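Problem statement: downstream parser choked on a complex file, so we are re-checking the raw output for the protoporphyrin IX containing FE run. The parser issue turned out to be on our end (a line-ending mismatch), but while we're here, posting the original submission so the record is complete.
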Amino acid sequence: MTPSHPLHVAGRLRHRLAAAGLLLALMAAGGCQNLAGTAANQYPADVNAASLGAEPPALYDALGERTGIARIVEDLLYVIVEDDRINDTFKGVDITQFHRNLTDQLCQISGGPCTYTGRTMRESHESLHITDTQFNALAEDLILAMEKNNVPVATQNRLLGRLVRLYPQIRGQ
Ligand code: HEM
């Protein structure tokens, strides 16, 4: 746990997402949180590029390539450890392997040159019986980790939109 971790953001996020729940909001919006505004950041401003008619940068680039994704995943693990809603589920998990596999997965999903070599989402989650509440908690933790890494909201939404497609496998549906 890094001392500077912005856990105070959690309350704000919960408030921001409280209306319908993150997952429902994501699905209703076709994979977008539809959240307005973003702080100044060091990443490409894909919203501005899009509004000028230019192609937005590949999601992988916008996330800071594999190095940026690995940092986000590391911060996600710090947030998960502090999150009493889901940290029990991760007890005994090989964190080094989980970090590598999740980084590769997010790298591949975002269009990067990585190959995810872990188990399928169905295989790795079926014995966990993941609930909607747990799924939303993890998505919220990922948002916190992306905010910590100054990923713009538009870019966050693009990644979340792709992850929502994994929902049925993770929930065992
Ligand atoms: C979009 C959501 C999610 C994604 C993309 C995701 C991704 C992954 C990946 C890539 C692995 C590694 C699989 C492997 O090593 O073969 C994994 C394992 C795991 N996931 Fe998830 N996951 C998600 C949601 C969740 C949720 C909501 C929970 C629980 C709150 C969870 C708990 C775990 C646990 C405990 C493992 C380790 C299982 C084991 O080693 O036996 N995941 N996940």
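For whoever reads this later: Residues 8-35+56-170 form a domain with the Globin-like fold (CATH 1.10.490.10).
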